[in-house]
Every structure is written in structure tokens, then in C-alpha cells.
Amino acid sequence: MQFHIADSFTAALARLSGQEQKQAKTAAFDLQLNPAHPGLQMHRLTNSRDPNFWSVRVNQDVRIIVHKTEASFMLAYVDHHDKAYVWAERRRIEAHPRTGAIQIVEVNERIEDAGPLFAPSQPDTTNAQPQPAPAPFQPVAPAIFANLTEDALLNIGAPADWTSDIQGWTEERFFQMSDRLPAEVGEALLDYAATGRLPTPEAAPTDPFAHPDTLRRVYTITSEDELRLALDFPWDKWSVFLHPSQRNVVGRDYSGPARVTGTAGTGKTIVALHRAARAVREDAQARVLLTSFSRPLANALRAKLAILLSDDPVKLARVSIASFEDAASELFQLATGRRPTLAPIDAQLPALERAIADLGYKDLPTRFVFSEWRQIVDAWNLPDVASYTNVLRIGRRTRLGSKQREALWPVFEAARFMLAARGFITPSQLFAAVEADAKARTDKPFTHVIVDEAQDLGVAELQMVGALASGPNAHFFAGDLGQRIFQSPFSWTGLGVDVRGRSTSLKVNYRMSRQIREAADKLLPSIARDAYGAEDDRTGAQSVFDGPVPSVAEFADERSEERYIAEFLLRATAEGIPPSAIGVFVRSTSLLSRARNAIAAAGLECRQLSERVEALQNYVSIGTMHFAKGLEFRAVVVMACDDEVLPLQSRVDGAADESELREVFDTERSLLYVACTRARDRLSLSTVTPVSEFFSDMGIEIGARL
Ligand SMILES: Nc1ncnc2c1ncn2[C@@H]1O[C@H](COP(=O)(O)OP(=O)(O)OP(=O)(O)O)[C@@H](O)[C@H]1O
Prior knowledge:
By secondary structure, the protein is an alpha/beta fold. Helices cover about 40% and strands about 15% of the residues. It contains 26 helices and 25 strands. The strands form six sheets. The protein has a seven-stranded parallel sheet, sandwiched between helices. A six-stranded mixed sheet has the order 2-3-4-5-1-8. The protein has a six-stranded parallel sheet with strand order 11-10-12-13-9-14, with helices on both faces. Helix 21 links the parallel strand 12 and strand 13. The radius of gyration is 29 Å and the shape is globular. The structure holds adenosine-5'-triphosphate. The site of adenosine-5'-triphosphate (ATP) has 21 residues, from helix 10 and helix 12. Its EC number is 5.6.2.4. Keywords: ATP-binding, Helicase, Hydrolase, Isomerase, Nucleotide-binding. InterPro entries: DNA_helicase_UvrD-like_C, DNA_helicase_UvrD/REP, P-loop_NTPase, RelE/ParE_toxin_dom_sf, UvrD-like_ATP-bd.
């Protein structure tokens, strides 16, 4: 007999107290060993429409609901006695007759509390007395699925007792009801509402428990050890119940570098983690590098991979997890025997200033020289004046003629010399050194390199990553072009990393409520393009839960804004959101004081996030929007979204031409998008008058004007 655990069981288990969870796990274990164990008092439920539901005693009050057929045994739910019984009375578990997927279906006739299904009928006026003038005509909203036949609905997996209701649903009703449908049905209907087409069902395996839609909610336990592990370890849903589109990317073999894309919160990181786990599970020789932009993000990846590979520390040890820079430093040390000393930005700028002064250049704007250094000369590790004068090939920044570049080159050469004399190398030089070393080796340092937040890989980083492993399945990138905030665009294909034809876009948003996602999505165009033709389709995203509409407030002065945000923070903590699950973001360092003041006014303490500092217990996280990247909070505040702050006026002023200006606007929008999309449940934006021009794009009415 097969033994299964449903996601409804793990979710319900997580809601019990620690002691109850322990007891429920013991009961589940006893159940697997011996369902007839007398202490379990297992008996069939008589009030359920599904005759296969059984109750199992955990303690005096708590019951596990088991679904038992001749061939299978499923832990379906667990709760306090009455709630557990009501859950089972309202459900049935069955293989859908058309799609074959196992579904946990809410019996439709029992749904009472979601309001009337149809608009009330007109009153009978046969013997009516004179009435006051009728209220203004209210059009009845159209039924958005009226054109879908029962057959079409069954094809997408709609339970038979739901089809006629679905046909009558208005848009509002659909949003109220969709999370009561099996997830694949809600997603297909949302697709239909957006595009007018239903997705074509894919051929399904004959075993219902192997169906991709079954696998998103039911996990098959194959051994005692596996059950022990599943019950002992906190079972995060993402670690087991993947969406079919995620599972597909995790399990696929590619003929070259591959990429997963998707708007914020669609589970790209989760896919990257599962691919890393898969690589070491399938190949005992695999050596994997899992890398991302910063140390906190690498730490977050490490914690999650430890959950995925909790059954096998040896396999876990075969995955190296580090930020781009830390990974490069380690490899550099392995190759040369010495630790690199990276040139901080604070050292690079003075070196350039000094070089300008030493060479006697007058009227050369330092900001321009520095940007040329960072974006071109250092970013590409240009070795000589010839490659710099030939820079047209590689960048968009074409504003300097070749004569001017020749004249400027000695400045860069001198700055490089000065940095080297102090024992510094720049991060780009570090990446290039590691790349050169890896290229020279036949035995590459890794068999697989998996990169998260790949949209912010710089030129030298990408080249290094490319050299660290070889083979068709060796490189996997997770990223979203719409979240590119650090790097200027460049052509990946031009550097030999061609993901065309091996790119998959995820659409189901697991992080943000529908209301937050919809507001944030309006900030970016529906297609994200970079200057080199790469494109991500950002349409068609769906959220799996609803929440409050984000709030937007505008104030006459900073004190009023700070007081308003303090109140928001107090409300959030009063609702049980701990400080560590709250993030407050501003555009730049000089604005952090506004965040600090608001947090202090709420009587809370904060810690500033950075490339090296992550969220801490008991502290609200604050930071510039750049350090929001890749993180997640239950409540997010984005403060000081003032005019001239977003987009940042100094960047706008510094743009030399149209294309640079566009780039500035694009990245400033992306920054706001990144900050807003960290929020799961609550999002509050605020500004001091005059307000950022990006606000109106989000389509949210400004709620408070004080
Ligand atoms: N299959 C799943 N089931 C449940 N939760 C999931 C699933 N996939 C992802 N999640 C959750 O959704 C949230 C977002 O996932 P993730 O961080 O992987 O998204 P992302 O696309 O990398 O986001 P971003 O682009 O903003 O970095 C996380 O809390 C993650 O645990």
C-alpha cells in the first residue's frame, strides 16, 4: 500500500502548538507502522460525502484525518476534533475523471459563507404600492466564463459539481472563490480571463500519483526514514510541493546554459535550489557552485538547501554556496595560495582623482571618469588603449570619440598602477584572474554552476561563471530582467553564454498577495527587454492569495510621514508580525534617517541591511532599495518616494544622452519594483510632497494627504 502526505496536512500541522505537532507526528508514525494500533482508535467518518475519510486519535482533542483506499493511505488533515471533522465533511479526495490528477475537492453544495452566487432576482411588483424613485441603474457584472462549456471546464480539471457555478461567475466572484478550486483550475481560469484562451491540457501519466498536478499537493513516502524526516523537519511547502512548471525546469536536461525567469516571487530561487539538490542527488561526482549576488543571499540559499538536503549531509557538502565575490576569492586563494585584497570603491575613486591631478588634466569631470572606469574600463578589464578605443563593440556608451579615449587612457592606466602598488585588485580583476585559471584547467572546479539573481551578473562575473564548469547541463541561471539594478546591460550571447531556446518563464507568484503584485507589476512594461535583444514576457502572472490593497500616503513634511509610518509599524506588530518580518526601504543612504526616525517613533529597533548584513531577530530591517534584492518580508514600507528622489535627480542630471537617460529611468523603476515586491502581505508607500512620478503608474489612489 502506498503512503502519502497531502499539503493540506503539512499546512494544518504547522498551525498546531509545538506539543500537539509532536504528538501528531508520533501518531502519524505509528500509523505508518501499524494502522490497527489500538491507541489510534481509527474509525471511518460517517458524515462525510467521501466514504474513505477516517479519523485517527492524536490526543484527547486533536485528530488526524486519513484518506484510505484499497491501494493508498493519505495523511490529509490534522486539527482539533470538531474542526478536523468539519474539514473532512466538506471534502472529497479523488482522481479527476478527465485529467487523472488527484484532487482535494471542497464539496460545492456545502459552500455557504462566501456570499450569494448570483445577483438577487427582481422583486415581485404585482400588488405593489407606489414606491420611491428607483436607485440609479446598477449594471449586473457579466459572467466571465459563460462561454466555457462543461466539457471545456472538465478538461482543465474542474470538479463536476463546480462547472455550472463557474459558468455563472463574475470577475469579483471568481476572485472570492478561486482559492477553493484545485490550484490548476484556478490558474487555467485566470489565464482564460486574461487571454481568452484556456491552456491545452498535457498528456498525463496513467498513475494518478505521478500526475504533475498531484505532485503539487501530494507527496508519496517511500520509506520509514523518509516519513521520519518529513515529520521531524519543518516541512516548508516549497521543499516538496513544486508547481508543475517549476518541477519541469528542475527535472529537465538542457543542451547548453539554461535560464529560469519570471516576475518577483514566482519561485525562481526555489527552482535554483532544487536543481542544485538534483545535481548532487543524481551524480555522486557532482560538485556544484550555488551563487548569488551578496553574502546574505548566499546565507539564505545555504539555509534553504540544508532543508532540501537534510537527509544527506554528504551531498549537501558537495554544494559550495557563496556570493560571487566570496566564491571568486576562495578560488583565487586555492589557485595562488594568497587571499586577494579587494580594492574598495573608496580606494578606486581617489586613485582616479590622483591620476587626473598627476597627469595635469584640467576640467575633466571626475564623475564621468569614474563612471567610464566602472562601466567600461574596469568592468570589461580592458587591457590596453586599443581595446578601449575599440569599445564600440561592447557597450552602449559611445559618447567618446577614439581620440578622446586615447587621451583618457593614461588616467586609467595610472589608477590601475596605483591600486596595484597598494596590493589591491578590483573585483573585476579578481573575476578575470579566476576565469583565466579555470580556463586553463581541463578538470574544471565545478560540474554545475547555478546562479541566482543572474540579471545582475556583471561582465567579468559572467565570464568567470562561464569558465568554472563545462558541459551541456553545467550552467543554470535564475533571474528577472525587470529587477536589474546594478549592472549596465550587455550581451550574454556575445560572451558565449547563449540561453536562447532554453529559457522558461514562471507565472505563479507565491510571495505577494494579488493586490501587491498587481500594483507592483504596473511599474514595469509587460515585456522587459535589454539593449541586446533579450526579452522576458512579464504578463500572465498569478498570485495564490489575496490581501489588503497597498497604501500610498503623501505628506507635507517629514515628521508627519514618520508618524504615519510609525503607526503602520505599530499596527503590523499588533497583528503579530514580528519586527524581523518587517522591512523599511528608502532610495539612498541619506534618506535612511527618515526610516530610523519612524521606527524609533514606533518604539522599535532597527538594523541596516548591506551586502554583508541580513535581517535579524527582534529588529526591523532598514536599507536602501538596492539591498532589498532577493529578500522577503511580511510587511514592507517604502518611504521617501519623493520627486527628485525617484528617479534620483543626480542620476538623471548625469545622463549624457537619450539612451543613458532611458537606462536611468529603467533602473530607477526597477529599484522601486524590487523594494515593493519584497512584501508578502502588507505594503505601505509614503512620500513628502511633491511625489515621485512613478506613483501614479501603480494605479493606487493616494489614501492619506496630510
Ligand atoms: N512551490 C512552492 N510552494 C510554496 N511556496 C513556494 C513555492 N515556490 C516558491 N515558493 C515561495 O514563494 C516565495 C518566492 O519564491 P522565490 O524567492 O524563489 O521567488 P523568486 O522568483 O526568486 O523571487 P525574486 O525574483 O523576488 O527574488 C518564497 O517564500 C518561496 O518559499
